[in-house]
Amino acid sequence: MKNLMIFGLFVIALVFVQFAQAQTVDEVIDKYIAALGGKDKLATLTSVHLDGVSVVNGNEITNATTKVQDKLFRNDLNFGMGTSVTIITPEKGWRSNPRNGGAFEPMTDEVLKASLYQMDCAGPLVNYAAKGHRVELIGKDTADGIECYKIKLTTKGGKEINYWLDSKTYLIHQSSQKGGFGGGRGADMELVTLFKDYKAVDGIQFAFTTELKGGGFGGGTMSYEKIEINKPVDNKLYKPE
Q1: Helix or strand or coil: residue 204?
Q2: Residues contacting residue 177 through CB under 8 Å, at least 6 positions apart
Q3: How far is CA 19 from CA 26, 56, 116, 138, 173, in A?
Q4: What is the pTM of this model?
Q5: Residue 25 belongs to domain spanning
Q6: CA–CA gap between residue 51 and residue 197 (Å, rounded)
Q7: Which of 100, 144, 149, 181 is the most exposed place for a label (fewest CB within 10 A)?
Q8: Residue 43 maps to which CATH number?
Q9: Domain count of the chain?
Q10: Number of helical H runs and strand E runs in the chain
Q11: How far out from the chain centre does Cα 93 lie?
């Protein structure tokens, strides 16, 4: 009987610890949402468009990314000698192959499922539970010399992403994920992204500089010259062309 009581107390203590941790991760994410601009403001996001440019090994790369909430993610990369386009919609996804004259190739169902979170304009941490994602607070960690809260997110589609939230600003300082640059290529490659130069766009914070490391990309810094929200999106962007 005594052993049973001890076991029961242990189970209660374990549940309490797990509940306390769940409260803690939600508190951190709530502060992140407030830092971005607030829950109500983020709920107004219907589309996001980003235009960026970077120089890698002396070559200029232009980047145009368009998101329509739960309907579209499109990324157009132009690296001078060719282009690479990724398109994600709820039902289908495509990726152009510059080695094949830029012809579009359909994504497998598995890759598409893992990529659907990219259509989220506010990001998967915002209202994560309602979206079917899971989160875990790993604890405090240092990233690039900055003290951060490290959060592991597993999307509804099974994609694992680590986020480092600055312990002072609560904005994302760094993220990492496997899968290589652009999604499905290089399943064992890790892509690390640093987020810098946050500025408000219509009351919502965006990083105007991102630094990429690994993921088969080789590294580089992307500076966004223009970020627009809630603008009309041309229907042709949904098509593999």
Answers
A1: strand
A2: 159, 160, 161, 162, 190, 191
A3: 11, 46, 29, 14, 26
A4: 0.85
A5: 2-238
A6: 15
A7: 100
A8: 2.50.20
A9: 1
A10: 3, 13
A11: 17
Residue 155 burial class via C-beta count within 10 angstroms: exposed 0-12, middle 13-18, buried 19 and up: buried
Helix (H) or strand (E) holding 164: strand 160-166
State the virtual CA torsion across 184, 189, 190, 194 in degrees, nearest 10. -70
Longest alpha-carbon distance in the chain: 75
Tokens at 219, concatenated: 């590294």
Question: What six digits make up the tokens of 88?
Answer: 């994600």
> Tens-of-pLDDT digits for all 241 residues of the chain?
545 445 444 444 444 444 444 448 999 999 999 999 999 999 999 999 999 998 777 778 899 999 999 999 999 999 877 889 999 999 999 999 877 778 999 999 999 999 999 999 999 999 999 999 999 999 999 998 999 999 999 999 999 999 999 999 999 999 999 875 444 445 678 899 999 999 999 999 999 999 988 755 556 889 999 999 999 999 999 999 8
Closest CA to 220 of 196, 185, 180, 193: 193
Residue 184 per-residue DSSP state: S
Query: b vs e for 190-221, b when ≥16 Cβ sit within 10 Å of the residue's Cβ?
Result: ebbbbbeebeebeebbbbbbbbbebbebeebe
Q: Is 178 helix (H, G, I), strand (E, B) or coil?
A: strand
Q: Which residue has the tokens 């996804």?
A: 93
